[in-house]
Amino acid sequence: MEKGEWDNRTSPVNFILLGMGNVSSVKTLFFLLLLMIYSVTMVGNILIVVLVVADQHLHTPMYFFLGNLSSLETCYSSTILPRLLASFLTGHSSISAHGCITQLHFFCAFASSECYLLAVMSYDRYLAICQPLLYASLMTWKVSLWLTAASWLVGFLSCTIVPSFLSQFKFCGPKKIDHFFCDLTPLLELSCSDTRVVTTVSFILCFLNLVFPFLFTLASYVCIIAAILRIPTNMGRQKAFSTCSSHLTVVTVFYGTLITVYMVPRTPQLRQLNKVFSFFYTILTPLVNPLIYSLRNREVREALRKALRKALAFTQRSQQFCTPA
């Protein structure tokens, strides 16, 4: 293939991710902070998955959804943080066009799947609180599996459309992306191609993958709060609210930061603020979710205590076995 033919394709193009700006003076500190965040995120979310699988008391639809949410958070973080850490470590912040589009695809897919899964979890809490007598017959294991599989599948399939358009685009200009990961808006700003179609498609997908699940979640919690307020006793209201308070906190943090990011205009004056909010929902949200569920959920705390007791007993037995008589 002639060199001139390659010039109009995305494959030889490399982008420079500008990251969080000029942080060279605190580069080592920033690297250690991100490494700690990523380590805690991975350990916390994987621990929740292990607890949900291992503890019989957590074999319910609510905790099955929680295990899937933690799996999503693990994948979600891994699309951004390892590459960001590598760029701090090596000093190389370039990424190929195909690598950039691939990162965008997986980021979009995991984020969209999380939006649908959070909606499914809100529906589960709605049935548990508003329809308690019908909950067992409505939220069966088969229904739970179908809803979870649909969340993953719809998220991934819907997010193949925009990357397939981007793979055909021509890119020109400085090839510098003023962000710490490959998001759609900064990529479109560098395109020489007509972006009207992909902008329209992304707007429709944004409504389907973000706005629709958010409105469904919001409607579920309006019904839940109305049902809780109708409970005559304070103890009954507190017990009902405790079953959904962790999920409500996660939903508030996730959607609060996500909506703020895409409502803040991408003007030169506000780009740093946009990055800060992006940092919150892409990096800090997966970190705080396992902390929220472990601190606010009695069943998860109890399962963790049991697991720690078993691990401690196993360690003591191993030491006794290895100690010579």
UniProtKB/TrEMBL annotation:
Residues 44-293 form the G-protein coupled receptors family 1 profile domain. InterPro entries: GPCR_Rhodpsn (IPR000276), GPCR_Rhodpsn_7TM (IPR017452), Olfact_rcpt (IPR000725), Olfactory_GPCR (IPR050516). The chain crosses the membrane at residues 29-54, 143-166, 201-229, 241-264, 276-295. It is a multi-pass membrane protein. Keywords: Cell membrane, G-protein coupled receptor, Membrane, Olfaction, Receptor, Sensory transduction, Transducer, Transmembrane, Transmembrane helix. Gene3D superfamilies: Rhodopsin 7-helix transmembrane proteins. It comes from the Eukaryota. It holds the Pfam family 7tm_4. It is found in: Cell membrane. Its main location: membrane. Belongs to the G-protein coupled receptor 1 family. This is Olfactory receptor.
